[in-house]
Every structure is written in C-alpha cells, then in structure tokens.
Amino acid sequence: MEKDISTEEKIKNAARKVFHEKGYGQARTRDIAEEAGINLALLNYYFRSKEKLFDIIMKESLQEMFGLIVNLVNAEDINLSDKIDMIVARYIDSISKNPNLPLFVLSEIQANPHKIIENVGLKGKSIANNFLFKQIQEQIDKKGIKGVTPLQIFINIVSMSIFPIVGKPLLMNLHAPFGEKEYEIFIEERKALISQWIKMMLQIDE
Q1: Is the distance from CB of 150 to CB of 137 less than 8 angstroms?
Q2: Helix segments in the chain, DSSP class H
Q3: Ramachandran region, residue 147 (left: φ > 0; alpha: ψ -120 to 50; beta: rest)
Q4: Could you give the angle at the alpha carbon of 21 between the alpha carbons of 15 and 27, nearest 5°?
Q5: Please, which residues have CB within 8 angstroms of residue 82's CB and are 6 or more apart in sequence?
Q6: Reduced to 3 states, what is the DSSP secondary structure of residue 77?
Q7: Does the global pTM surpass 0.70?
Q8: Quick one: which of 162, 153, 45 has its CA closest to 102?
Q9: Which pLDDT score, from 0 to 100, does residue 70 have?
Q10: For residues 80 and 180, what is the distance between their CA atoms, to the nearest angstrom?
C-alpha cells in the first residue's frame, strides 16, 4: 500500500491543531483522527503511535517558532537597529497567526526538557553562538553599559513580543472597551514601542 502524501499531511495538520490546543497529555489519537476526518486504523498505519506523531509535530513547532529568526539573527549585512525592528515585527506577525504555538512549545519543554532538546537536535548547542549576540555585545561595550548581557536583551525582545499575543484574552478583559479593532491598533503600536525600548536600553543612536 503506497502512502498518500496528502493524507499524511492531513493527519499532521490535525495533530498540530490538537496538540497545540491540548498538549501531549490531554490529546488522544482518536481526537486527531476525528479532526483529520479519517478512521483510527488509518492514522495508526501512517504514524503507529501518538508519541511518534507528537515528536514530529514538536520538532516542526520548534523549527517554526525559532526558525522565524534563525537567518535574521545570523545576517551580517543587517545593522543592529534594523535587526531589532525586523525580529519584533516577525515574531508579532507570525505568532498572531498561531497564538497556541508558543504556549504549546514552552509547556512541553517545561514538562520534559531533556527529551525534547535531544529529539530536536539542540543538545550541546548554545543560543549565544549567533551574530546578533555579537552585535549586541559590541553595542554594550561601545556604550559602556553595565549589568546587561546579550541574553537578557534577546529574552526581552522575544517575551515582550510574544506575551501580548498569548495574553490576548486577558488583555481583552483587563482594558475595556477593548475589541478586535482596538487590539489590532494596540499590537501595531507595540511593534514600534518594543523596538524603541530595546534601543533605549542599548543606547542606539538613530
């Protein structure tokens, strides 16, 4: 029996939706089969186990989340100021389309960090080995900034960009009236503000 690529992709798309919404522990293969519109036997033929399917989805999800900026952080022809603008915009625009992605990745890493790190090939690798960190460190040294590291700056960029997306339900209720239109305006304003705040911390002259 020759595997049908379209069916395999249909299963993966369904699994991605179910895993992102429920996590590994609460997701059932029956839920995935129903989401994909197939029977359980066909799902088992393609992927054999929930764990195997989860490992595939987790690897792809990590690549999606961190792959957004891999090429960008290592680009040597983009200055630090422009790079900050682009990273913020890229994270906000991309995560807005899939707000469950960061919560899924972070919760599963917290639940089983060693297994996930090994499965996605991150064991022994350092987040600091990229050109962005070099640029940030050069700016810190140039301005004589104390008590700030490239890692702290990077975490600020990512967390300030992602939280308003995953925290949308909270924001919609904390600040009334705050409908979809107001939220969209808020997010667009935040793109500019995050960049400004990071550049202020690094004393980047523009």
Answers
A1: yes
A2: 5-26, 29-36, 40-47, 50-67, 70-73, 80-97, 100-111, 113-119, 131-143, 150-166, 168-174, 180-201
A3: left
A4: 55
A5: none
A6: coil
A7: yes
A8: 162
A9: 80
A10: 33
